[in-house]
Structures are given as structure tokens and as C-alpha cells.
Write a structure and sequence with these properties.
alpha/beta; seven-stranded parallel β-sheet
Length: about 425
């Protein structure tokens, strides 16, 4: 339970309430989901300044839903800070959406400070307030204004935890909570990014896999500050809310890879695999993801089996592809803990993947998928050919993947973060 409570500002006009207080009052009466923009508050003094903040920058999108609790009293308040709530395959956005919705359904009062994106309506329907704050700008002037506004937001919402998901949001959050009892938790999604050490400013730093957590320790963070919460997406309302539709009819046998066509994701390695198994097994390979790097596509187009390699672009719901796949392949060079791997496991697919970062942990050290070394196309080709030649091995590996996926669910992720929040609330080995 959080000890912080809503504070009634001394406005000299007790009948008036600030924008965020009004949002709390709105939440107490069940209603169908609505979208309301708080835009005008006309009280004097301190509330005037809050009203100006609401109008100029945070512009809360306040939502009510009958599943919310009738009162805010006694509820833990969590404020997530993330660059965007985009629905275009952004893993960080997906993790934030999954966690925020799950926490709200479990009874927390959850708010997300972000650039409004495609998932804004979804999180609102599940009881999450969305406030527009720009963490993505690299302008010093904009960042200073964002820090001031976010600090005011923290003082009005009085969260127990600010949960930051990006570097800039972590630094701004740490400044914003100074002088309050609020603690900052930072989730490191991509530890290979430059400047990730800035996330050490948080009271707790969480890696999305053990490898990510260890990487942060090697950067100089003390062990007591680091935790691990392995990614999981099974049971996500983000996925359940979208109708997957009928499976896409793929030419068989079908290899499927989901993710950006990029060097980091090993798209060039998969093209080598695709060309070889097309010649030996007549297999078709499907790339589902934005094309960030054109070399793999051009290589495939210039080959003698170009008609066996298909670049589909971004797919909003890969379940339609996974339902028709023969083998799922993930040849990444770096991948902290890819959610799409969990989705492939949940689909019961046999998996071939490179043993990098959190991939090994997600696949239980190889018990739930075939692991090969990174940058080794020959090993990838051999593993894929083995599965194409052995239906029994495909079935066995697919069953193991499905079983493993049951541990990679959103409820477990939420419970793990709840333990971290509780550590901080109790003041256990907390940074000054």
C-alpha cells in the first residue's frame, strides 16, 4: 500500500478542483469508456499554475471505465514514463502497455506519461490514464521544459513509483522526484544503446533478462541496485484486444521471421539460410517487419530462387503468420529479450535461434528451441534442415516451446515488478 495521498490544494475556493483531481473524481462513477481532454480550469493561485500546466503540456486524456475501483483510497499509484505508446512493433511500447494494463486490472491507479500513440485508446479502456509528455526531443530547451512539467505532474499525482522505460525518461524522473517519497524504477530494454549508463540514476535498475542485468553490473552498477524481470507477453490484453483473423495461407514448408529487417536482427544471415533451404527443400521464407536495411532484400532478389523469399513489411499481428509457419527462425546478433520469441513459443512452433543476450534464457538454455552460435549461417542452415527433415523433432520442440511459454506471462511480470516496488516502499537497500 502506498502511504502518499492526494493533496487538496489551497485554492481559496474549496469547490474547485485541479485537472488531475477532477480526473480522480471522474473515475469514481462507473461509465462507458470515454475520452475527455482536460483543458480549462479557472481557479486562482496555485491551481491556476496547475491548470496552465494541463493546458500547455500534459493535456491529460482522462478515461473512465466500469472495471475501475470506486475510490482511489488505498490504491498504489504508478506513473510510467515512456517515449511513445506506438502500435507499430515497438517492443518497449509493448512492454509498457502490457504492464500498465495488467497493473490497472490488479487494482493500481496507473498513469502513463508519453507521446500519444496507437495504443492510447486501448490502455484507456483498461483503466489507465494517459498524459502527453515529450521525452523524445533532443532539444535542450524542450528537455528543460519537460523536466519542469514532469516534476509538477509528480507532485500532483503523488505516485509511489515512477517507472521509466527509456534513458531520457529515467534522468528526468530522477530529477522530478527529488524531495518527494517517490522512487524511480528504470527498465533497461536495450542495454547495447549508447548512454544506457544514465539509467543508473534510478533507485532500481531492471534488466529484461539476466544477461542485460549482468551487462549493467559490468558497467559499474552495484549488485543491490540491479534486478531482473524476464520479459513475458502471454495473456497480454494488448494482443487479446485485437482479432488475429484467419491464418495467412503460406507456401509450404514455411520459415517465418518476425522483426525489423536489420543487421542487428541478422536479416542477412536469414537470407543465406532462405536461399539454401529453397534450393534443397523448396522452402519459402517470410520476413515480417519494417525494412530498415535493404541489402538482404536485394540479395534475395538477385538470386535464382527469388520467388521463394518474401518480404511482407510490418504485420500488426503476427499470429496469422505464426499459425501457418513450419519453423520460426530468429538469427539476431543482439536481442535482449524479444517478445516475438515468446509469441512464437505460445504458438507451439519449433524454433531455431542464435544464442545471444536474453534469447538463451527465454528458450530455457535450449530446452525450448534449437540454439546456434551468432554469425554462423552454416549452423543455422543445418538446424533448419534438421527440423524440415524430421516432423517428430518439430512436434517435440514445438510442445516444449509451448510449455515454456506458460512461465512467460504478463501476470508473472507484474508480480515481479510489484516485489521491486515493495522493496523500495519498505526502504530496503535504497539509494539516497
Amino acid at each position: 500500500m502506498c502511504s502518499a495521498q492526494w493533496r487538496q490544494p489551497n485554492t481559496g475556493s474549496p469547490g474547485r478542483r485541479s485537472g488531475l483531481e477532477q480526473s480522480t473524481a471522474n473515475r469514481q462513477s462507473p461509465a462507458r469508456p470515454v475520452r475527455r481532454i482536460c483543458s480549462t480550469v479557472t481557479t486562482g493561485g496555485w491551481s491556476d499554475r496547475v491548470a496552465s500546466l494541463v493546458r500547455r503540456s500534459v493535456a491529460p486524456i482522462v478515461r473512465r471505465h466500469e472495471r475501475r475501483l470506486p475510490t482511489d483510497a488505498g490504491r498504489r499509484r504508478v506513473l510510467h514514463a515512456v517515449n511513445r505508446l506506438g502500435d507499430k512493433g515497438d517492443g518497449i511500447s509493448n512492454v509498457c502497455v502490457d504492464l500498465a494494463c495488467q497493473q490497472s486490472m490488479e487494482g493500481d491507479h496507473v498513469m502513463v506519461a508519453t507521446n500519444v500513440g496507437g495504443f492510447t485508446d486501448l490502455v484507456g479502456d483498461f483503466g489507465v490514464d494517459v498524459v502527453e509528455v515529450d521525452f523524445s526531443s533532443r532539444s535542450v530547451a524542450v528537455l528543460v521544459r519537460t523536466t519542469v512539467r514532469f516534476r509538477r505532474l509528480v507532485r500532483e499525482f503523488t505516485p509511489c513509483i515512477v517507472h521509466a522505460h527509456t534513458m531520457v525518461a529515467t534522468v528526468i524522473a530522477r530529477i522530478a522526484v527529488a524531495g518527494t517519497g517517490t522512487k524511480v524504477v528504470a527498465t533497461v530494454h536495450n542495454e547495447y544503446q549508447r548512454g544506457v549508463i544514465l539509467m543508473a540514476a534510478a533507485h532500481r535498475v531492471v534488466g529484461v533478462s539476466s544477461v542485460v542485468a549482468e551487462s549493467m553490473r559490468l558497467r559499474g552498477l552495484p549488485r543491490w541496485k540491479i534486478r531482473t524481470v524476464l520479459n513475458g507477453t502471454v495473456g497480454s490484453v494488448r494482443r487479446q484486444a485485437r482479432d488475429a483473423g484467419l491464418p495467412i495461407d503460406l507456401l509450404q514448408p514455411a520459415l517465418v521471421a518476425v522483426g525489423a529487417v536489420s543487421h542487428r536482427k541478422g536479416a542477412d544471415l536469414l537470407v543465406e539460410v532462405a536461399l539454401e533451404v529453397a534450393r534443397s527443400h523448396g522452402a519459402h521464407t517470410y520476413f515480417a517487419g519494417n525494412i530498415d536495411w535493404d541489402l538482404p532484400r536485394r540479395t534475395a532478389a538477385n538470386s535464382d530462387v527469388a520467388d521463394h523469399v518474401h518480404f511482407l513489411g510490418f504485420q500488426p499481428d503476427p499470429r496469422r503468420l505464426l499459425a501457418s509457419a513450419t519453423v520460426f527462425v530468429l538469427p539476431s546478433r543482439r536481442d535482449p529479450a524479444p517478445l516475438v520469441l515468446v509469441e512464437a513459443m505460445e504458438a507451439g512452433l519449433p524454433i531455431v535461434a542464435t544464442a545471444v543476450d536474453g534469447v538463451t534464457e527465454l528458450l530455457a538454455g535450449g530446452a525450448a528451441g534449437l540454439l546456434v552460435g551468432p554469425n554462423d549461417p552454416a549452423a543455422l542452415i543445418a538446424a533448419v534442415r534438421h527440423l524440415l527433415d524430421d516432423p517428430a523433432a518439430r512436434q517435440e520442440l514445438g510442445d516444449a516451446a509451448l510449455l515454456r511459454s506458460t512461465d512467460l506471462n504478463v501476470r508473472r511480470v507484474s508480480a515481479d515488478y510489484r516485489m521491486i516496488y515493495e522493496e523500495l516502499r519498505r526502504g530496503r537497500t535504497c539509494a539516497p
